[in-house]
Structure formats: structure tokens, C-alpha cells
Specification:
This protein is of the alpha/beta class. The chain has 14 helices and 14 strands. It folds into 2 domains: 219 residues, Glycogen Phosphorylase B (Rossmann fold), CATH 3.40.50.2000; 150 residues, Rossmann fold (3-Layer(aba) Sandwich). The strands form 2 sheets. An 8-stranded mixed beta sheet has the order 3-4-2-1-5-6-7-8, with helices on both faces. Helix 8 links the parallel strand 9 and strand 10.
Length: 394
């Protein structure tokens, strides 16, 4: 089967490699093992790739072809760059590649989705819409936090993101949601019928993410308990509360924060750490290459994600697969995992108390690992998605 994948990012040494990007990449590798051929349209054409004339790359002996399109404009999102270029690119590929399925991840495809909404009666190639988050749900979570949105986010990015979600719910022959809560929100906000939506939770590369290979040395003393968070570091993920919780914990607890920060948020968190006198117990790392991140996970004792809203965060599965105990919030998961612990509420005291509690609870990595391997490996996810593809052909 020929799959055309539309996704904002793709792991590349010259682009951002956190967040959503690795998931469709790993899924694609699993799908070619099932005999598919894949073309990817993504926003990887930044300055570095442009200078190297990297407009197109091939992987897996040509079974995956990636076309790099212009990246987003700061503050405006991808809607005036990547999303616009995507439409003529799709039309070209429709007649050259001739895809059997279009698999659209998230809101990047907004103008393509509008095209399908207007001309779907003529263009019959089925679309599978893959929801990793929902703009309305994220907006509700931010309002509960009383978090102020920038002018462009509030009046430009979020309205178009919500418009894209609406279009995807309308034009998709089938919808994939990465979590049960997300599926319920899609049904609630966009009146999608049960038979049109399937929950396919996020997956993890269980070969790369393990507990027996090299660990990164964060430089703390041997008796330290390393708390960590890897990924987008934003107000929605309550990193400030995690730092505040550190001040209520014993000196042996240390914190590592790895990833890209929301604008101005890092400054406020660092100032908070200074005021609480915990700066010497925190280490900050910029975004680390996806291809090099696994040793950083292995060196974390307790991964903490006190998020207000998530679909099903891939970093949670990577941390569990790497041997970390995990404390999290903002999502539900279908299978109970021994080393995954949920916060009852997102408060400083609750985070601190839960860290103490989980630290005193023995890890049950073998049982956790077994659940991950049985239900969250990418080959399993690819097979589930194949069932959806095949149902659209019949």
C-alpha cells in the first residue's frame, strides 16, 4: 500500500526532534516492515537544510521518501508556510506517487483538509485523521490555569488549529485518537460517531529505549535521586510547580530539565529556582537529538510530567521503557503499568509527596516492561492501523 503521511516535523539532525516528530517516524519504520511504501510531507526546510539543498531525503532503501517544506513563522505557526506549500505538493504527488491512503497528523494539513472538504466528491483518496491533541481541550486546560495566551496564539494559531480539527473530523474516512480522553473530547466537540473513531495509543521503540545500555552522567553524587523531565518545557506542563516541589524535598533529590522552552518561561522558572534556593540542584539541557536521547532517559530515577493536558505523551512510554519510575497527569492509559503513578491534583505539595512516595516504592520494571512490549511496541501499533486502512478499502 502507498501511504502519504502529512506531519509537521520529522527527526533530522538539522531540525527540532522532540514532541510529535519521532512518533510518525517510528510508525513509518514499522509500516514499511509490513510491506508499505511511504511519502512524507513535513516542515523540515529550515535554514540548515536549505543551505544543504536538502529538499528531499530517502530512508530504508527508498521505501520512505521525505519532502522538506518551509518551516513555520514564529508566532504565526505553519499556516502561512508549510500548510500552503502542502496543497500543490499533494496534488503533484496524487498523480505521481498515487497514494492509496493519506494519513494526516494534526493541524498541519489545514488547507489540504479544506481542499478535501471542498473537492472530496471528486478526489476520493481516503484520509485517516490522526489526533495527537485537540485544540479545544488544550485551550480549556490553559484557561483553567489562568494562563495568558499571546495575541497571535489567541486570535490566529488557536482559531486555525480548531478550524483544522473541525475539518479533520469532517473529511476523514476514519479518525485515530492517541488516548481515550482525547477520543471522548473529539466525540463531544465534533459529534463524531463511535464507529468512525479508533483509539490507537502512542508507541515506543522498545529496542532503543531499554535499561541495560549506557546511561548519561548528569554529574550528581552517587546517592542522588534524579528527577527528570524531557520534552517541551511549558507552562501547560507546570515545570514551575515541579521546581517548587523540589524545595520541599530532601537535598538528595536533583532535577534535570531537557528540551525547548516556551518563550520567557525559562527565565521565570530560573528566577523561581533562585528564590527557592534550589538552583544548585537543577541542571538544564537544550533540546537533545532524538537519536541520542535514550541514555538521558536511563539516567533518570523518577520521570515527572505534571501536565494539565496531554493526549498520550510518548516521553512517558520512553521513560518507562528505559527503566524510570514515572509520575504524571493530564491523560489516561488503557493498560495499568506498575511503575506509572498518577497525581491526584497538580499542586506543589502533591508533587512533592508523590515523589517521596514513589521513591520509597520498589520499581517493578520487569512487569512494566512486559506491558510496554506487549501493547505499546510500534509493530503492534502499525498492525492496528493496518486494520483501519484495510477497512477503508473494502
Amino acid at each position: 500500500m502507498k501511504i502519504l503521511r502529512i506531519v509537521y516535523d520529522w527527526p533530522d539532525k538539522n531540525t527540532i526532534q522532540e514532541g510529535l516528530a519521532p512518533a510518525p517516524y517510528e510508525l513509518s519504520l514499522a509500516q514499511i516492515r509490513l510491506g508499505h511504501k511511504i511519502v512524507v510531507l513535513c516542515g523540515n526546510l529550515n535554514g540548515k537544510n536549505f543551505k544543504r539543498s536538502r529538499f528531499k531525503t530517502e530512508l530504508a532503501n527508498g521505501l520512505i521518501t521525505v519532502y522538506n517544506m518551509p518551516r513555520a513563522l514564529a508566532g504565526f505557526g505553519p499556516f502561512l508556510t508549510t500548510s500552503l506549500v502542502l496543497v500543490p505538493s499533494y496534488i503533484y504527488l496524487k498523480f505521481t506517487f498515487k497514494p492509496d491512503i493519506i494519513h494526516n497528523h494534526g493541524h498541519l494539513g489545514v488547507w489540504f483538509l479544506l481542499y478535501k472538504f471542498l473537492f472530496g466528491w471528486l478526489d476520493k483518496t481516503p484520509v485517516v485523521g490522526h489526533f495527537h491533541i485537540l485544540a479545544k481541550s488544550r485551550e480549556v486546560a490553559l484557561k483553567k490555569q489562568s494562563d495568558k495566551l499571546s495575541f497571535l496564539t489567541k486570535y490566529w494559531e488557536y482559531p486555525i488549529h480548531k478550524f483544522s480539527d473541525l475539518l479533520m473530523s469532517e473529511v476523514s474516512a476514519h479518525i485515530i485518537a492517541v488516548g481515550n480522553d482525547l477520543a471522548n473530547d473529539i466525540k463531544l466537540f465534533y459529534k463524531v460517531r463511535d464507529r468512525k473513531i479508533t483509539v490507537v495509543e502512542s508507541g515506543v521503540d522498545t529496542i532503543r529505549f531499554n535499561n541495560h545500555e549506557e546511561k548519561y552522567d548528569y554529574g550528581f553524587s552517587e546517592d542522588s535521586v534524579v528527577i527528570g523531565n524531557i520534552g517541551r518545557l511549558s507552562k501547560r506542563k507546570n515545570i514551575d510547580k515541579l521546581v517548587s516541589a523540589l524545595s520541599k524535598l530532601d537535598e538528595k533529590y536533583k532535577l534535570v530539565l531537557c528540551g525547548t522552552w516556551d518563550r520567557h518561561y525559562k527565565d521565570s522558572v530560573q528566577k523561581l529556582a533562585e528564590n527557592l534556593k534550589v538552583s544548585n540542584r537543577i541542571k538544564y539541557f537544550n533540546s537533545i537529538s532524538y537519536f541520542e536521547i535514550d541514555p538521558y532517559f536511563r539516567a533518570i530515577d523518577i520521570f515527572v510530567l505534571p501536565s494539565s493536558y496531554e493526549g498520550l505523551p510518548k516521553v512517558i512510554l520512553e521513560a518507562l521503557s528505559s527503566g524510570s519510575k514515572v509520575i504524571a497527569s493530564g491523560f489516561t492509559i488503557s493498560h495499568e503499568i506498575s511503575d506509572l503513578h498518577f497525581l491526584n491534583e497538580i499542586t506543589v505539595d502533591e508533587i512533592a509527596n508523590k515523589i517521596n512516595e514513589v521513591d520509597s516504592t520498589p520499581s517493578n520494571y520487569p512487569a512494566s516492561r512486559k506491558i510496554i512490549e506487549n501493547f505499546y511496541g510500534w509493530d503492534i501499533k502499525a498492525a492496528q492501523i493496518d486494520d483501519i486502512y484495510n477497512s477503508l478499502k473494502s
